[in-house]
Design a protein that fits this description.
alpha+beta; single chain; Porin; elongated; eight-stranded antiparallel β-barrel; 2 helices
Length: 205
């Protein structure tokens, strides 16, 4: 076997090894990219029912766990007085950790989450607020605004569909317990448990 033929085979073997290494590295990079993603979405149900503007950012981590932060402008307490709102300057921020239960799909399907929420601001309705007084009587006040500020913690459950690895649709429901704030009956008798639902449309990048 000639020296030139041996050199050609050696060069071809090195090229094949280099191409194989590059393909493996690219595959690993692609897998890592799939594991670390971002998503931005908005709760359309809030907008339709209460006129609230919501923006949610979700950061995908490993093991089908993600962290999310959600800001809501012109917020309400649950959907209390949603059909009778005159104005609202309330703002809320919710932080959650999402746990996706699927073993075959990444960051889609059924998920559950604990949440913490802080809210500040007032809501003004188009009718006088009714409250329970100290004697337990349901009476009408001479004001139309009430404070919705406070801090709460709760849990939620949802399901997410991913379309073409880019677009998402989520349906969820949650309940939070008020842990601080003026939500007692002298304010507006809102109650200390706040239910919430959502239909989020999102984009992953």
């Amino acid at each position: 076997m000639s020296f030139g033929s041996t050199m050609k085979k050696t060069i071809l073997l090195l090229c094949a090894c280099a191409m194989g290494y590059s393909a493996v590295a690219q595959t690993n990079d692609d897998a890592e990219t799939r594991l670390v993603k971002n998503e931005i979405s908005s709760n359309i149900l809030d907008l339709v029912i209460a006129g609230s503007l919501n923006v949610t950012y979700e950061r995908m981590l490993n093991n089908n766990i993600s962290l999310a932060g959600s800001a809501t402008f012109f917020d309400t307490y649950g959907y209390y007085d949603a059909g009778y709102l005159e104005s609202t300057n309330a703002f809320s921020f919710r932080a959650s950790a999402n746990f996706y239960v699927s073993k075959r799909r990444q960051f889609e399907g059924l998920y559950f989450y604990p949440l913490l929420k802080v809210r500040t601001g007032e809501v003004t309705s188009d009718y006088d607020v009714f409250i329970y007084d100290d004697q337990g009587n349901f009476t009408q006040t001479n004001r139309r605004n009430y404070d919705v500020g406070g801090f709460s913690a709760g849990v939620g459950l949802g399901n997410k569909w991913v379309i073409q690895d880019k677009f998402t649709v989520s349906v969820f429901g949650e309940v939070a317990r008020n842990l601080g704030g003026n939500l007692d009956r002298q304010n507006a008798d809102l109650g200390n448990v706040e239910p919430r639902f959502g239909i989020n449309f999102g984009y992953r990048f």
